[in-house]
Amino acid sequence: VPANDHRLSERAAISILERALGGQRSRDVRVGIGDDAAVLAGGLVWTLDASLEGVHFDRRWLSLEQVGNRAIEAAVSDLAAMGAMPVAALVGLALPNRVTRREVDALARGQARAARRTRCPIVGGNITRGPALSLTTTVLGRAQRPLLRKGARAGDELWLVGSVGLARAGLLLLQQKRARPAVAVRAWREPRALLREGHALVGRASACIDVSDGLASDAFHLAGESGVALVIDETTLVTPLLRSASRALGVAPEELALTGGEDYALLATGPRRRRPAFAKRIGSVERGSGVFLAGSGPRRALARGGFDHLG
Amino acid sequence: VPANDHRLSERAAISILERALGGQRSRDVRVGIGDDAAVLAGGLVWTLDASLEGVHFDRRWLSLEQVGNRAIEAAVSDLAAMGAMPVAALVGLALPNRVTRREVDALARGQARAARRTRCPIVGGNITRGPALSLTTTVLGRAQRPLLRKGARAGDELWLVGSVGLARAGLLLLQQKRARPAVAVRAWREPRALLREGHALVGRASACIDVSDGLASDAFHLAGESGVALVIDETTLVTPLLRSASRALGVAPEELALTGGEDYALLATGPRRRRPAFAKRIGSVERGSGVFLAGSGPRRALARGGFDHLG
Question: ipTM > 0.95?
Answer without folding.
Answer: no
